[in-house]
Amino acid sequence: MPANVGEITENILKYNFDTPVDRKNTTSLKWDVKEGELPMWVADMDFKTAPEIQSAIQKRAYHGIFGYSIVPDEWYAAYINWWERRHGFKMEKEWLDFCTGVIPAISSCVRKLTTPAEKVVIQTPVYNIFFNSILNNGRQVLENPLKYENGEYSMDFCDLEEKLSDPQTTLMILCNPHNPVGKIWDKETLSKVASLCKKYHVTVISDEIHCDITEPGRGYIPFLSVSATSREIGICTIAPTKAFNIAGINTAAICTPSDALRNRVRRAINTDEVAEPNAFAVGAAVAAFNEGESWLDELNIYISENRRLVGEFLKNNISDLRLVKSSATYLLWVDCSNVTQNASNLLDFIRKETGLYLSKGGQFGRCGEPFFRMNIACPRSTLMDGLERLKAGVMAYIKK
């Protein structure tokens, strides 16, 4: 399980998260911005990945030949051992398949497991690319908005059952932990989702890419671990890419316990040609899971402190903004409703006035319009720069 803060003493200073890394002119999507702008939007950390992963990539690069790659036994073992040790869930080798990414996996499964015009349930506000995976494949988005009460989110099961009972609903995409609200779903909630989906013959794809970024001492619960039912109707997409900041390596896995579903998943990813690793995809994942645990534990402590600092800063300096309570991801969800019901205009103003670039809540679903998402996976000096820009922008917006 993830380490408690008190369990890491001597190793706490082993890795350096404080030194900024200049990412400009590196073809970075995140940092492809105007001079003087500060991007804190896309889910991409401003930390170098674990040295152990860097070493594995460098060793592979030094070999100098980059032909076609296979998926060796050590790749399966790395995933199996990590999930059993870290998350208390024992996966079987035959359940696992390599994929170039979580979104390619989800999009392939949408195409194979549904037919055109059928409906796919998502729980908004949610990762905006889910919309693309559904709509770009000619399927319909069916929103099951999360309930937002007293600054926290929960599932609306009455509405969910209504949406699942629609005869045209054949698939649900679950986000566990949830992006952007940072919610770790508990076992009871996940079990209820599984039961309802089985009742209405709906398959569940659980996107668990953010599962390793949690508050120190907190674990997440894999959807497939909660019941025999979840394993019967569930597909899980997992990867080291968010936790270890290696999204550009294109490496992920799909876990499918059901033989019937797994055959369809394999047909999907092979038809779409997203089931073959590049030369670095296997080694990077193996190094992450086999050698990167202490780095990750320290990272989670650092991000936890960043989360605390943001909450304190907002409370003391921008009390009109409310931080939504979260326990996972390095993405914060901030309620702007005391300032505006449409954060889009506010964020455009803040970017123009201060250069701070944040994610607009409306892109995560209509219910997200009074919110914004902020990426805090950055050195503390960068974080404080961003918060000062945010303060200046909000104050100027209120006064205008």
List the helices and strands and how they pair.
Layout: E1 38-39, H1 51-63, H2 73-87, E2 96-99, H3 102-113, E3 119-122, H4 129-135, E4 140-143, E5 147-149, E6 152-154, H5 157-164, E7 169-175, H6 187-199, E8 203-207, H7 228-233, E9 234-238, H8 241-244, E10 252-255, H9 259-271, H10 281-291, H11 293-317, E11 322-323, E12 331-335, H12 343-354, E13 356-357, E14 359-360, E15 371-375, H13 380-399
Quick structural gist:
With 400 residues, this protein is α/β, with parallel strands linked by helices. It has 2 domains: 5-52 and 293-399, Alpha-Beta Complex (Aspartate Aminotransferase, domain 1); 65-291, Type I PLP-dependent aspartate aminotransferase-like (Major domain) (Aspartate Aminotransferase, domain 2), CATH 3.40.640.10. The protein has helices at residues 51-63, 73-87, 102-113, 129-135, 157-164, 187-199, 228-233, 241-244, 259-271, 281-291, 293-317, 343-354, 380-399; strands at 38-39, 96-99, 119-122, 140-143, 147-149, 152-154, 169-175, 203-207, 234-238, 252-255, 322-323, 331-335, 356-357, 359-360, 371-375.
